[in-house]
């Protein structure tokens, strides 16, 4: 990229016609000064705060920071050095536009959306109250209209699955998102996105959803900080190739340059073992019972992957 900016010519490796047309309108003349500046910034040993150096006039970062995307909040804060607010403006899907965040500059962990009733007709499947999430309705089950709750009848603290009827023709379509009512704006209820209901790790009686897993990993990754390491991304699966089956977490870890030996991360196995224990301690009592009493679930495993890996 820096070579292209310096010479004002696009690399022949870029063959897509539309991409070439768009980039050639930008690369109108050589700019070796800008290329050298970008190269110097990107060549620094640490990329902490690099966003502010590359784009010094940036005011904020617009990003999705709810659900599974919440795992990227620490990375965005690292690259911006905490100087740019993370703004999550809307709640939408390919089926419908649902609502907006009326406090876009709030802490990413406090994001709540106010649904817009002119975007569709919203109904809700109750999934529990008083801070207890109960997914006792199968995701493929047809839900009777008598079980649905209207937008005006939802209650603070309760969990619901969103059902929408759209102007495009979808009738009582189950979006699959689990929401919790956090409060009201005037008389309009506000919702916090919890998780996708079909994202569950399960071996025996245990049911670990997206939010529970994220909370446990958030607690465990703090053990990396004293070792100048940062959890950049993670994913998970269930391994049932052996008995009992167990959870496998794939962690991509970014580390401070001083903690490198021959471009490899120096991280004691003991630290990862402590992280495994911390994750398990934060999971719910059903998982812990399956692990310690029933022994129907094996020890959790963390596998560290190479940075930038897209498949696991």
Number of strands: 17
Q: What percent of residues are in strands?
A: 25-35%
- Number of continuous helical runs: 8
Strand order of the largest sheet: 3-4-5-10-9-8-6-7
**Main sheet makeup:** 8 strands, antiparallel
Instruction: Please trace the helix and strand order, writing H or E for each element.
Output: HHHHEHEEEEEEEEEEEHEEEEHHE
Describe what this molecule looks like in 3D:
The protein is of the alpha+beta class and 312 residues long. Helix content is 23%, strand content 28%. It contains 8 helices and 17 strands. The strands form 5 sheets. The chain has an 8-stranded antiparallel sheet, with no helix packed on it. A 3-stranded mixed sheet has the order 13-14-17, covered by helices on one side. β15 (260-261) and β16 (264-265) form a beta hairpin. α6 crosses α7 (269-282).
What is shown here, in short?
With about 300 residues, the chain is of the alpha+beta class.
Please supply descriptive tags for the structure shown above.
8 helices, alpha+beta, eight-stranded antiparallel sheet, about 300 residues, single chain, three-stranded mixed sheet
Task: Summarize the topology.
Elements (H helix, E strand, L loop, with lengths): L1 H6 L9 H10 L5 H11 L7 H5 L6 E2 L10 H8 L5 E2 L2 E3 L4 E4 L12 E3 L5 E8 L20 E2 L8 E7 L7 E13 L2 E9 L3 E2 L6 E2 H11 L8 E11 L6 E10 L4 E2 L2 E2 L3 H14 L2 H8 L8 E5 L7
